[in-house]
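Annex B.
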Amino acid sequence: PVLDTEDAWVSVEGPVSIVELALEQKRIHYPLVEHQFVLCTVLYAIMRFSLKSVKPLSLFDSKGKNAFFKDLTSIQLLPSGDMDPNVLSIRQQFLLKVVSAAVQTLCSSQKDKEVSEEELFPFEKGKNWPTLAADLAQYLQISEDLVKRHYVCELYSYGMDHLGEE
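RBGPR protein: predicted structure tokens.
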């Protein structure tokens, strides 16, 4: 980008401006950032719903695990389209656990106190965990429809038929 500066600033001495420092930075490898985002979302879901016996790194193959410890500016080999069926099974189980835990948390709080979702998750306003799990399914190469069907089944099993119909 072209940065126009006024003549008065040309003769100024001092530390390098933050704009110039930003322009000198290496470009990040965006797919690697997305990969890190998936891990952060997985860790947050595990923490939020206190999911037991979930090993976050088991959701990734060896290439995916190695990519977590590399610089974001480096171009890394990320997992390809062909995945180990065992890893896919573990991913699917994880996403279904997240959906089940989200529905259980929402339904139990609404039955106890008639609390809205915004009050239950004050720092997560506008965050719909089942929808987030369906979005995460794309990154983890799991069928979104499978996650959505499980969500509807969970809603019906907890007596939330009006939401299940939607």
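The chain has one domain: 25-112+126-163. DSSP finds nine helices and no strands in the chain. Further annotation is deferred to the next reporting cycle.
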